[in-house]
Amino acid sequence: MNTQKRLSRREILAAGLSLAATACFPIRANATTDWPAAGTIKMIVPFNPGASTDTLARFIASGLSRRLSQNIIVENKSGAGGVIGTEYVANQPPDGYTLLFQTNPFISAPMIIAGNHKLPYDPAKDFQPIGQIAVAPLLIVVSNDLKVTTLREFLDVARTKPMTMSYGSAGIGSINHMAVELLSSMANVKLVHVPYTGLGPALTDLLGGRLQMIAASLPSVLPYVNAGKMRALAITASGRSSLVPNLPTVAEAAVPGYQVEAWWGMFAPAKLPVPITQRLNSELDSLLASPSIVEVLAREGASRRPISPDDFKKMILADVPRWRKLIQEAHIVAG
Length: 335
Hints:
- Belongs to the UPF0065 (bug) family.
- This is Tripartite tricarboxylate transporter substrate binding protein.
- The structure is a single chain.
- The strands form 2 sheets. Strands 2-1-3-10-4-11 form a 6-stranded mixed β-sheet, with helices on both faces. A 5-stranded mixed β-sheet has the order 7-6-8-5-9.
- 47% of the residues lie in helices and 18% in strands.
- It has 2 domains: 41-135 and 263-329, D-Maltodextrin-Binding Protein, domain 2, CATH 3.40.190.150; 138-253, Periplasmic binding protein-like II (D-Maltodextrin-Binding Protein, domain 2).
- The protein is of the alpha/beta class.
């Protein structure tokens, strides 16, 4: 009799524990599927306010806010070529309430900052890619003081007179910097890099003849090219641009296999739940289909590039060894 009572209590206790355990699963699922349920979403931009990346991030945040019916605020955490803000996001909970808006230095900057030491963050492991937003080519332009009309002529002069041709960039590790370093490496020429704290001062020095070359976004240099104040030689993308259809690509003009594009994308901390990743990617893709975003991107000479999180991750994984090899071989270090 006592044994039956004890067994009955055990059975009741086991059943109660089983029920409690089962009840936990719907709660976890709802916490994911109901996202965003409460609170404000932060989108971290690791660059200064007013830059083109910041402007685009605010437009994307505004559009996503409307689609998600959730407040999204853009917060700038600049410094160290984007590393400070990016590292901040890597250390946040993967709950969908902290996002990162980044561009090409996402991959190169931590390698340059770290040197031979531990990376401040691992672009391939510490983040969940949400989706790529857009890509844009760069335009290689030279000073009018330089009497060359093609990229091949420029490279021939640089090869004949190593370390006599200088080029400017928006800073060490910027896409302007890395694009020209890759060109130098593939074309076997040696150029002098002059980093600035932004592209504006570099363009001023190019116009004044104090620099010989820059690789820059089309909107930033095309007005000068059209006005005859600098000369365009080639475009860095894999295909020609409708904005300069007669201008060859670098690969066509002189360096087969060369291709570099500026890109923008959105990330979250690693281990973001799959349903939140998919929801964000879906809403982002829908936003990129709107005519207003196409118009905004066109001002940057960019085109939309909606891809899946998995494809975006594959792109990151493919770019990591390419830039690591270049950084090591060119001895690129933080200034």
